[in-house]
Write a structure and sequence with these properties.
The complex is a heterodimer of chains A (399) and B (250). Chain A is α/β, with parallel strands linked by helices and 399 residues long. Helix content of chain A is 58%, strand content 6%. Chain B is globular. Chain B has six helices and ten strands, in the order βαβαβαββαββββααβ. Classes of the chains: A alpha/beta (399), B alpha/beta (250).
């Protein structure tokens, strides 16, 4: 049964949508009813005023969300399909939008990234992630097909692996062209090797991933790049975990640890290995390599263990899984571990995403108490409200 | 800290220091003195002999601290990176803690030797670099000019051996670095401690012979600078008298 209608929540009116996506969306109108919360929506796309969003039958609708400021509006509606299709900001992302993007992506039923960096980040956090960056037509087709299947109620998981393999091969081809050029360094050859290594990791080709990672590491060192030990070489520990070599993986992490916090993580993993808590050590090491998805999968069956619970709460927070983090904190009465203000803020945000706006505001006020500067939650909510309205207006630059 | 180890699992006490050296027909030069000197401050010595035709292997084995000698039947001189890799692997098989890459004509200043245990028994750094002085025409003066100024920066010759850590050398036929360049990514300590290099301290005839060899091996300056090679024959190089550093100079 096809989910109808489709509602676009854009990032600066209809014209704010990148051209390569706009024409494809316009094509969807032939098969489906398409609305857009945009004052410049072209016919036959129907404009949907901001104040009428609540009138949509969301339990049968699909939402395509293009800016993180929509998070507190769309998530509580619980649309049948929540497709997040955010665009890479040219400017450095503000902390508020980084958090909103994280919460929105965690709530999505499908994520379509517009940049490789965003795509890889999300692939390490959840399933159902596609890339549509306009750089490779075939790759974009996989993403478009996945969205349509998803809206029509079909599984799109098989396309994930196909797109990953295709993208890995695309990277491979690009690298082969660059390898012998004189300006390989300028063309980002070393970074290309690193990205390719991550794709092979995602497709389960650990040996190939290792080979590419080491080639990237060597190349970056020869180019005089800094921080390669923690930014690149450390990922070898995740690859070693995939190969089942946990002792080697922890040792590799130890070589790359460079400050008190990282040395403590190493000591912690060593202690867990000595006490046969291997899954805990593995989970922490996956987390330290930003692979939160694998970390959470290892920890979820271990919540009887207090160390595992704490690590899972941290991991959920990093994944943007506020509701799950709060549930675990409440269940285990671990709020004491968090600063009270921090806990109220977290709880407020979780309530906001459940659509309990007044309860959320109450939490934010409690967090503020007598300190004006601690009213961050209220201020952030006002900013999100304002920006979401702005996103419906055409001819505006996306934030 | 766990299991008595330091930061990131690094061993901070009781570390073994292993000197590594590749040699070829060094019997009549500084090798005996260099091995005697090394025997005074390192724990073990590992050597790759690159198809010597003189008594170099026998001389090497006469030193008790030489725990491993690998002898090549055919020289890898024209594939220096392979020779470096061979030496690295041979040393790795002896379970070292720290590796000191030494040439057969290099001598650590006494002051440097006295500091060596402190440099390796710590958990902050994985590499240590020293200042290398090129002695010229004698063992009393070093050279310092546009082409001969290696001592003005640091050269990495001492590294913590990290099992499983990726090691790689640039594929250079000549002038390949003595240690894997991948170790340069690790936290390192640059010191003002000094090494004396006697490779150019011999007679002008020896230097002429070295120059001729370089020109034969690298006539187009592919692996080094032709101007640098030409400076070997400079009749009036700038020489500075060496002042041995005493312990109280600290």
């Amino acid at each position: 049964m096809a989910a109808q209608p489709i509602v676009i929540l854009p990032c600066g009116g209809w014209q704010g949508i990148p051209v390569y996506q706009r024409s494809w969306l316009e094509g969807l109108v032939q098969k489906r009813k398409l609305f857009a919360a945009a004052d410049d929506a072209p016919s036959p796309v129907e404009p949907l005023p901001f104040d009428q969003l609540g009138s949509v039958e969301w339990n049968s609708a699909a939402a395509i969300v293009m800016h993180p400021a929509w998070v507190h509006i769309i998530v509580p509606f619980k649309p049948r399909c929540l497709i997040v299709m955010l665009h890479e900001s040219e400017q450095e992302e503000e902390e508020l939008w980084r958090q909103c993007r994280s919460w929105l992506s965690a709530s999505a039923t499908l994520v379509v990234a517009s940049s490789e960096a965003q795509y890889l980040e999300q692939s390490f956090r959840r399933s159902g992630v596609f890339l549509m960056d306009g750089l490779d037509e075939t790759s974009d087709l996989f993403a478009k097909q996945a969205i349509e299947w998803h809206i029509d109620g079909f599984e799109s998981d098989t396309l994930i692996r196909l797109q990953q393999r295709h993208r890995a091969n695309w990277r491979d081809g690009l690298l082969q062209k660059q390898e012998h050029t004189t300006d390989a360094e300028a063309q980002g050859y070393a970074d290309g090797l690193f990205f390719h290594s991550i794709y092979r990791y995602l497709t389960g080709e650990a040996d190939r991933s290792r080979e590419l990672l080491l080639a990237s590491f060597e190349r970056m060192l020869l180019e005089g790049r800094e921080q390669t030990l923690s930014n690149v070489y450390r990922f070898l520990s995740a690859i070693e975990l995939e190969k089942g070599r946990i002792q080697d993986a922890v040792r590799t992490y130890g070589y790359t640890a460079q400050n008190e916090v990282e040395w403590r993580y190493f000591d912690q993993m060593t202690e867990w290995l000595a006490s046969r808590k291997c899954d805990l050590a593995k989970a922490l090491l996956y987390r330290l390599n930003d692979d939160y998805r694998k970390a959470a999968a290892l920890l979820e069956p271990l919540t009887e263990d207090s160390d595992a619970r704490k690590l899972l709460i941290e991991t959920y927070m990093l994944m943007g899984e506020l509701r799950r983090a709060c549930a675990l904190i409440r269940l285990e009465h671990q709020q004491a571990d968090l600063d009270r203000k921090q806990w109220l803020h977290l709880q407020g945000m979780a309530l906001l995403l459940e659509g309990k706006r007044h309860e959320a505001i109450h939490c934010f006020l409690q967090a503020g108490e007598n300190r004006q500067e601690d009213l961050n939650g209220i201020i952030e909510l006002a900013v999100m409200d304002g920006v979401a309205r702005e996103m419906t207006l055409g001819n505006k630059e996306a934030n | 800290m766990v299991n008595g180890l330091g930061k990131g699992g690094r061993k901070k006490t009781g570390n073994k220091l292993t000197a590594i050296m590749q040699v070829r027909n060094e019997a009549g030069r500084y090798l005996e003195a260099a091995l005697a000197d090394l025997s005074g401050f390192v724990d073990e010595i590992v050597i790759v002999d690159d198809a010597s035709t003189d008594e170099t292997p026998e001389l090497a084995l006469s030193f008790e601290k030489v725990v491993k000698l690998v002898q090549n039947k055919e020289s890898l001189f024209h594939k220096e990176w392979l020779l470096r890799e061979q030496l690295w692997r041979a040393a790795a098989e002896t379970s070292p803690d720290w590796l000191l890459a030494v040439d057969a004509d290099e001598f650590y200043e006494d002051y440097t030797k006295a500091a060596m245990r402190g440099l390796i028994n710590q958990d902050e750094y994985d590499t240590v670099s020293f200042r290398m002085y090129d002695f010229w025409d004698s063992v009393t003066h070093y050279r310092e000019d546009e082409w001969w100024n290696l001592h003005q920066r640091q050269t990495m010759t001492l590294v913590r051996y990290l099992p499983g850590y990726h090691y790689a050398y640039p594929k250079r036929a000549h002038h390949a670095p003595r240690l894997p360049f991948t170790y340069s990514a690790l936290p390192g300590l640059d010191t003002d401690l000094r090494i004396k290099h006697y490779g150019w301290a011999g007679s002008s005839e020896e230097r002429q012979a070295k120059y001729d060899r370089y020109m034969k091996l690298d006539p187009l300056g592919q692996w080094g600078s032709l101007a640098h090679y030409a400076s070997i024959l400079d009749p009036n190089p700038k020489l500075i008298r060496w002042q041995e550093r005493e312990r109280q100079d600290e």
